[in-house]
Design brief:
single chain, alpha/beta, Rossmann fold, 9-stranded mixed sheet, binds 5-O-phosphono-beta-D-ribofuranosylamine
């Protein structure tokens, strides 16, 4: 039986698009069914993208709603679809306790930085403005803390020689699009340790980010992972994951799957 997912977005939806594509014709096709895409913004370009790929997509506007009221509306909306996992992909809301309680350990998020170094909106801007040589894409479970969920996987992206913010983002998104589906596949097929096995983020210190105090934050941002990257991949990336903590494990994990195709974004 395929894992039924709802993908939550707020904007462009390039990660959403990558996941749908992998579910339709790539590494998620045997284990994942994107049932519905929900945006908290009516004008999110990702809604049309999802529909053009044959996936139901609806707007559930969040403007004027508090966290709890919005979460309850979302739960009501999703209930008939019998969703197993919520996949956050650029969803610019903090997930509250109501939603966490309804989907415990079943909400996943992607954040384009190591949360120990940067949380909140604007991770690529931070990486560019501070001229970082690397950034670390992070996929994590969402828990009741603010960006404190256990990390499922991280992959480093080399930013050396980046010439612009757009260049930084392009490099990062290429990794995001591939990493997210790989992690979801491992999660849905049970190819991972329990969430408790990865380091919870609340105990770790992190750099302050004023955007965390804003009412809406990019829930791709969370605190971070305990394990430093260990595997080295091509093109200046490194990976770390409970599923594939050593290069040979990752190779065997991926070798049984057809190659993933990076989506256009
Ligand atoms: C991505 O960088 C993701 O990591 C972050 O928000 C951005 C969303 O981009 N959480 P997209 O909408 O998937 O193109």
């Amino acid at each position: 039986m395929k894992t039924r997912i709802a993908i939550l977005i707020s904007g462009r939806g390039s990660n959403m698009q990558a996941i749908i594509r992998e579910a339709q014709e790539g590494i998620l096709r045997d284990c994942c069914e994107p049932v519905i895409v929900v945006s908290n913004r009516e004008d999110a370009p990702g809604l049309a993208r999802a529909r053009s790929m044959g996936v139901r997509a609806v707007a559930l506007p969040s403007r004027g709603l508090g966290r709890s009221a919005y979460d309850r509306a979302l739960i009501r909306l999703l209930e008939p679809y019998e969703i197993d996992y919520l996949v956050l992909a650029g969803f610019m809301r903090i997930v509250g306790p109501d939603l966490i309680a309804r989907y415990p350990n079943r909400i996943v998020n992607i954040h384009p930085a190591d949360p120990a170094l940067f949380r909140g909106i604007g991770a690529y801007e931070w990486a560019w403005e501070t001229r970082r040589e690397w950034t670390t894409i992070t996929v994590h479970l969402v828990d009741e803390g603010v960006d404190t969920g256990p990390i499922l996987a991280q992959e480093r992206v080399c930013l050396r020689g980046a010439t612009s913010l757009e260049d930084v983002e392009r490099r990062g998104l290429a990794v995001e699009h591939a990493l997210y589906s790989r992690v979801l596949r491992a999660l849905f097929l049970g190819e991972r340790t329990s969430p408790e096995a990865s380091t919870s983020l609340d105990s770790r210190s992190h750099a302050p980010n004023p955007s965390l105090d804003a009412p809406a934050t990019d829930h791709g941002q969370g605190p971070r992972l305990g394990r430093p990257p260990t595997g080295t991949a091509e093109r200046g990336t490194e990976s770390s994951s409970p599923f594939a903590s050593r290069p040979h494990e990752r190779e065997s994990w991926e070798s049984t799957e057809p190659p993933s195709r990076p989506p256009s974004s």
